[in-house]
TrEMBL record, chain A:
Higher taxonomy: Bacteria, Bacillati, Actinomycetota, Actinomycetes, Kitasatosporales
Protein name per its UniProtKB record: FtsW/RodA/SpoVE family cell cycle protein
Principal subcellular localisation of the protein: membrane
Regions of compositional bias (Low complexity) in chain numbering: 1-20
Keywords: Cell shape, Membrane, Transmembrane, Transmembrane helix
Superkingdom field: Bacteria
Stretches that traverse the bilayer: 34-54, 66-84, 91-108, 128-144, 153-171, 191-211, 232-250, 256-272, 277-293, 355-376, 397-418, 430-449
Membrane topology, as annotated: Multi-pass membrane protein
Region annotation Disordered: where it falls in the sequence: 1-25
Subcellular location: Membrane
InterPro entries found in the cross-reference section: FtsW/RodA (IPR001182)
Membrane among keywords: yes
From TrEMBL, chain B:
Domain of life of the organism encoding this protein: Bacteria
Keyword flag Transferase: no
Organism the protein comes from: Streptacidiphilus cavernicola
Signal peptide positions (record): none
Name of the molecule in the record: FHA domain-containing protein
UniProt cross-references to PROSITE patterns, sorted A to Z: FHA_DOMAIN (PS50006)
Keyword Protein biosynthesis belongs to the record: no
Length: 475, 177
């Protein structure tokens, strides 16, 4: 065979002539990434200046320093990618940087809303957490030589996830936790261990499903057109279901439990290609949700809020949280009121974390909100593209799991704020206030970039390609 | 601040945000990769010069290792020692494993170094390891469908030369320097 054909297949009988199909690697897109990163630093700066002009009538002091700082963060992250993951996806880092930068501007803007109840400055802390997040991003880039190393820690990851999830349930409850026990308080600051589980649990699922997917996919009986798995293969899914229900009951954290169960069902479906798992998953989630909803008062009040968002609170207050955010979104209209010109103090509770989407929707309008959702969708799409391109099954499953967790998170919080699904406390990735969330998401992006680097790395040129064909003849 | 300036900035910001989204989508558009179909007639002229020429525009140049003629093992054996194992055909084509003196196991079992997703592979199919002198040896682990070195089915541990193709089912693997 001649050299190019040796790398691909030669289709026969195509009519006009034969063609050679050659695998084509993705180009190294680091310069594209750099250009987009410059954009991603400049756009939040524009937003920062715009907000200052609207609220104080002048460009805020320190715009230059802030811009240089963010530019330095972005440059360091870019150099790490250039050095340690040269073939990685060019879009993930700029989109993450843009979302994080916009989040910082919105938090700073809400700090300045003086009428906001219980307002304490948060932008400074969020900036520090962002720095830590990018440090972790660079750390993962440098230390994680190959994502397949994570596969060794499959069961350790499972155990760590369980411990991290269980810790807050045993912590003394605090009045400031608002019903959900998901924080660990150390001194004056608190961390949410559940956030880190978003990375650890997909590692466990990917390792476990890779080992068991054949048994789950093939050893099944057909019944009414559905593939029913064997009883013993059902064990793990029931275990995870029970686990997520236990989280729900003991920590009354609807969002986290939905997130983990959703990620598990997505990964199960991807690993086995059986639609019946999705049906089972939905059925079990519905069943569990119904069971908890009939017993837990915290969950019940969330559902009432969702069904009747505009009913005034019984104690004579205004409408509930969802009603407030719906009013904010409505006030924004199509083009928004402009940065810094909304009435975000009317959202009385969690304005910087769960309800930051309300302020964004009011000040940027439907147009801005849709651009934001598209950015999240693009990030998710790049994750799935990485999974498609990855060669090893563990990398595929891990990429699907991580990007699935990311997308589910956006869906849960955006669905809650817009009144599509019952509201649950969950941070909007990269935008909302929350240190654990920011650093977890940066680590998540770093792992996805590592997988995409391996997946997009071009195949080494075949040894035979550059050597002349040996001709055997009489000597 | 005048109302006009603020309105312009408000709309300008939305425009810039959407510009970013559009540029990102453009990047995705130009980022397609996978397979490329080259017509034989068009490619024939370039065949002699550079075999990789049709992909040259899109692909970064292949790593050019200093490759001499000492492949026949005339000089010191360490000079031409292989540094990586490359899957050249099959569903894993393009996967590489760096050789650092460790044993490499091949098979469908999920704890193999290279997990073969190949219907004709056994769960523990073969292994590749260095002996005391550093020579790489390939050994078939009593697989069902056998391991082939070039055309011959392996029956005993066999020394492996760089560039020789090991075939397991539909997967072809070779050592590279």
């Amino acid at each position: 065979m001649t050299a190019p054909a040796a790398r691909g297949r030669v289709p026969r009988g195509t009519g006009t002539g034969t063609a050679t199909i050659m695998p084509q690697g993705a180009p190294n897109r680091r310069n594209t990434e750099l250009v987009l990163l410059v954009f991603a630093v400049l756009i939040p700066l524009f937003a920062y200046a715009d907000t200052g002009l609207a609220m104080d009538g002048r460009i805020p002091a320190g715009t230059l320093e802030y811009g240089l700082g963010m530019g330095l963060f972005a440059l360091l992250a870019h150099l790490a990618v250039r050095r340690f993951a040269p073939y990685a996806d060019p879009l993930m880092l700029p989109i993450a940087a843009l979302l994080n930068g916009l989040g910082l501007v919105f938090i700073w803007r809400l700090d300045k809303a003086r009428q906001l109840a219980r307002n304490y400055p948060a932008a400074q802390n969020q900036l520090i957490w962002t720095g830590l997040g990018i440090a972790l991003f660079i750390g993962v880039m440098v230390l994680l030589k190959d994502h397949r190393l994570l596969q060794r820690y499959t069961y350790i990851a499972g155990l760590v996830a369980l411990v991290l999830l269980a810790i807050p349930a045993f912590m003394p409850a605090r009045a400031s936790d608002f019903g959900a026990k998901i924080w660990i308080h150390v001194g004056s600051f608190s961390i949410q261990p559940g956030e880190f589980v978003k990375i650890v649990l997909p590692v466990f699922f990917a390792g476990y499903l890779m080992a068991k997917r054949d048994a789950l996919a093939l050893a099944s009986r057909r019944f009414l057109g559905l593939y029913l798995p064997r009883g013993r293969d059902l064990g793990p899914i029931i275990a995870v279901w029970l686990l997520s229900l236990l989280i729900l009951v003991f920590e009354t954290d609807l969002g986290t439990s939905l997130l983990f169960f959703g990620v598990f069902v997505i990964m199960l479906y991807v690993a086995t290609e059986r639609t019946s798992w999705i049906l089972f998953g939905l059925l079990m989630a519905g069943l569990g949700f119904w069971a908890v909803a009939t017993t837990e008062s915290h969950v019940q009040s969330r559902i009432t809020d969702w069904l009747h968002p505009l009913t005034a609170a019984p104690n004579g207050g205004g409408v509930g949280q969802i009603g407030q955010s719906l009013f904010a979104l409505g006030a924004g209209g199509v083009l928004g009121t402009g940065l810094g010109q909304g009435h975000s103090w009317l959202i009385g509770f969690a304005a910087k974390s769960d309800f930051i989407l309300g302020t964004i929707g009011e000040e940027l309008g439907l147009a801005g909100l849709m651009a934001l959702f598209l950015l999240y969708a693009l990030l998710f799409e790049r994750g799935l593209r990485t999974a498609l391109a990855a060669r090893d099954p563990f990398g595929k499953l891990l990429a699907v799991g991580l990007s699935g967790a990311f997308a589910l998170q956006v869906f849960i919080v955006a669905g809650g704020v817009t009144g599509t699904i019952p509201l649950t406390g969950m941070t909007l990735p990269f935008m909302a206030q929350g240190g654990s969330s920011v650093i977890t998401n940066w680590a998540l992006i770093a792992i996805l970039l590592k997988i995409s680097d391996v997946a997009r790395r071009p195949a080494p040129a075949p040894e035979t390609a550059t050597e002349p064909t040996q001709v055997l003849g009489p000597s | 601040m005048s109302e006009l300036t603020l309105t312009v900035m408000r709309l300008g910001f939305l425009a810039v945000l959407w510009l970013f989204v559009i540029v990102a989508v453009q990047v995705i558009r130009s980022d397609l990769f996978g397979t490329k179909v080259v017509q034989r007639t068009a490619a024939a002229g370039r065949r002699n010069g550079a075999a990789a020429a049709p992909t040259g525009r899109q692909q970064p140049p292949p790593q050019r290792e200093a490759r001499g003629q000492q492949t026949q093992g005339g000089g010191r054996p360490r000079r031409g020692a292989p540094t990586q194992l490359v899957v050249v055909q099959g569903s894993l084509a393009g996967t590489t494993v760096a050789l650092q003196g460790q044993t490499i196991t091949l098979g469908r079992a999920h704890d193999s170094t290279i997990v073969l997703d190949d219907d004709y592979a056994s769960s523990r199919h073969a292994r590749i390891y260095p002996d005391q002198t550093g020579q790489w040896i390939v050994e078939d682990l009593q697989s069902t469908n056998g391991t082939y070195l070039d055309r011959t089915r392996l029956t005993s541990p066999t020394p492996l030369q760089p560039g020789a193709a090991i075939r397991i089912g539909r997967t072809v693997i070779e050592l590279r320097k």
